Every structure is written in structure tokens, then in C-alpha cells.
Amino acid sequence: MPTSSDVTEVPDVRKTVIVEVPVDDAWQIFVERPVEWWPAHHVFVEDRQSITIEPKEGGRYHELGADGSVAVWGTVVEWKPPHRLVLTWRMGPGWRPVFDDEFASLIIVIFRECGSNSTEVALTHAALDRHGEAAQGIHAALDGPSPGATLAQYAEVVARHSGPRA
Questions:
Q1: How is the beta sheet containing 60-65 ordered, strand by strand?
Q2: Which of 2, 4, 17, 157 has the fewest CB neighbours in a 10 Å radius?
Q3: 30-52 burial string, b = 16+ CB within 10 Å, else e?
Q4: Maximum CA pair distance of the chain?
Q5: CA–CA separation, 124 vs 128, rounded Å?
Q6: Structural domains in the chain, sorted by start
Q7: Number of other residues whose CB lies within 10 A of the CB of residue 77
Q8: Contact (CB, 8 A) for 103 and 92
Q9: Is the pTM of this model over 0.85?
Q10: Is 101:109 a contact under the CB 8 Å cutoff?
């Protein structure tokens, strides 16, 4: 395993999107409906049936395959509804899972009210250097214009569930 002197610090990657719902609704859709917004090609099991974010610090976030297989993507580090969620991200070389949070980066999601019916959602991939040799490649894959594919898909799900305004 690499030591801290072997790995160059890798900058965080931050993406944002504004959704036209109150902060409580933005949070709820994010944590209760990840299977709807999580990119279909980001999968570790065959025939994914669900994605669950366990609603507590120390909980897991994981996907379930049709055959009953479970892949754990990480651990809930902070659970502060409806404003802050921090998860470990157990991604390894070759986009394969790692099984130890010591080698996982962090996903920090902040929900900030920007009016009575809109919320800014900021998703930051932090501590990417914890991915060791894969860190620079992971950073390059994540870095790009906001909101990025994941938050764009999340915004579509929010719009679908918020329906027309009265």
C-alpha cells in the first residue's frame, strides 16, 4: 500500500445543481430514491434491484442484485438531515470495489436552501488521494463541468417527483 509520501495530494471535485423543491424534499429524494438517480453503469452486482443508504451514522450504502448479492459502496460517516450527508466511497483500481474504508475517499453532500422552493445540492468527492495509484485517474474521470451526469440525473428525478406546481 502507498504511504502518504508516495501519493501526490489530489484536489477535490465539487459539482452543484439547483433543484426546485424545498430542502427537505431534496434530501428525501436523494437518500430514499438513489436507485432512480444513480447512474445505471455504476454497478457492482448483476441485475441491480435496489440501492439503500442506511439512515444513520455507521450505516452502509449498498446495492442488491436480483440473485441476492450485496455490494457495499461505503459507510455513512455523517447523517445530518436535511443538510449534510458524508459517505465513504470504496472505489479501487479498475473501478472495482475495495473493502476497507481506510482506502476509500469521501462523498460529501450539502443541501442548502436557496429560497422557499429551491435547494442547491453540492456533491464533493474529497480525500481522493486515499485511492492510492488510482487517485489521479479517478479525479480525471470525475472532473468536468457541473452538474455532471449523476447530479443531472438526480435533478431529473427530483423534477419527476415534484410534479407541476399549483
A1: 13-19, 119-126, 105-113, 84-89, 70-80, 60-65, 48-53
A2: 4
A3: bbebbeebbeeeeebbeebeebb
A4: 57
A5: 10
A6: 13-42+74-162 (3.30.530.20)
A7: 17
A8: yes
A9: yes
A10: no
* Helical (H) or strand (E) element with 63: strand 60-65
State the CB neighbour count (10 A cutoff) for residue 16.
15
Cell 473493502 locates to 99
Question: What's the rounded Cα separation, in Å, for the pair 37 and 43?
Answer: 13
Residue 145 neighbours by CB under 8 Å, 6+ apart: none
DSSP, collapsed to helix, strand or coil, labels residue 156 as: helix
For 97, the enclosing helix (H) or strand (E) is none
Residue type, 142: L
Question: Cell 469521501 maps to which residue?
Answer: 106
Angle between the 23-32 and 148-162 helix axes, to the nearest 10 degrees?
110
Q: How far apart, in whole angstroms, are the C-alpha atoms of residue 16 and residue 100? A: 28
Residue type present at position 21? V
Report the C-alpha gap between 16 and 121 in whole angstroms.
6
Compute the residue count for the chain: 166
Q: What pLDDT digit, counting tens, does each position of 3-59 carry?
A: 444 556 899 999 999 999 999 999 999 999 999 998 888 888 888 999 999 999 999
